[in-house]
Amino acid sequence: MSENNSPDSPEEINALAAEYGLQLSDQDIAFLGRFLDVLFEANTRMNLTRIVDRKQAWTRHMLDSLSVLPFLEACQAQNMLDLGAGGGFPGMPVAIVRPDLPVTLLEATGKKARFLVDAATDLSLENVTVLSERAETLGSPEGGGRFAWDVVTARAVGPMRVLLELALPLVVEGGYLIAIKGERAGEEIEEAAKALRTLNATVEKTHRTPSGTIVVVRRDGPILKMYPRRPGEPSHSPIGAPARERR
Ligand code: SAH
């Protein structure tokens, strides 16, 4: 375990970051490293990540998360919500290196949300707000978060056609979903054709990084009141999926 507490070498981290087109200040690296310490410590008590190797955590968690930064800037986002933040990715690293940006971390599981609150307090992150509820509730017409964010990010929260229904009702018209996907991104986008039409959105670009695929989706127009459907429904019967057998 002592390895996990070793300080991170800025040269080594920036060599990895360069592969993502990123460059981090020594101060950012120290701050991000403190979040890793907090995460690894909490991970001994609860299941937040399977990655326990520090170098791997830098690439697969930190840099993979920070790969959204250039796209966030291109969207000129004034605020952002990370949907299904889990152990804090990508929202927490983004909040650390962008202290000027208000970041809301949305996480349905209470225990994980409590970890996120504690971590934000530990690191004195004043730009972070944690919400413990489901995206379907927050984005409903009575939910208080409908059409409220310039950008919603999400990593590892369901296939694209499900994620679109959860995320787009939280995005302002003309705003963006920035999803971190894996190698199947292209297939997921094809399967999401009907969901994109139904929710009035278009895939603006996809971009490969060393650890994933960034998919930028623009919300072009109105969203019917019936979306998102009630909690669980988007993943049980995704828009555009073959009809399920009647129960
Ligand atoms: N984004 C993190 C965690 C991915 S796991 C990462 O990439 O490491 C998916 C997380 O999304 C889980 O913590 C789960 O509790 C949360 N989640 C799933 N569906 C959700 C919903 N409808 N609303 C809010 N959170 C949700």
- The number of distinct helices, counting runs of at least 4 residues, comes to 11
- Specify Rg, calculated over alpha carbons: 18 Å
Helix content: 25-40%
The fraction of residues assigned to DSSP E strands is 15-25%
Spell out the CATH superfamily.
Vaccinia Virus protein VP39
Query: What's the CATH topology name?
Result: Rossmann fold
Low-confidence stretches: 1-5
Strand order of the largest sheet: 3-2-1-4-5-7-6
Overall geometry comes to globular
Query: Number of DSSP strands?
Result: 7
Average pLDDT number: 95
Instruction: Find the structural class using helix and strand composition.
Output: alpha/beta
> What count of structural domains?
1
Bound molecules: S-adenosyl-L-homocysteine
Protein described:
This protein is an alpha/beta fold. The chain has one domain: Rossmann fold, CATH 3.40.50.150. The chain has eleven helices and seven strands. The longest helix has 18 residues, at 26-43. The relative contact order is 0.12. Bound molecules: S-adenosyl-L-homocysteine.
How do you describe this structure in short?
This protein has helices spanning 10-18, 26-43, 54-66, 69-74, 91-97, 110-122, 135-138, 160-167, 185-191, 193-198, 233-236, and strands spanning 80-83, 103-106, 128-131, 149-155, 171-181, 201-208, 213-219. It is α/β, with parallel strands linked by helices and 247 residues long.
Could you list some keywords that capture this structure?
247 residues, alpha/beta, Rossmann fold, 7-stranded mixed beta sheet, globular, disordered N terminus, binds S-adenosyl-L-homocysteine
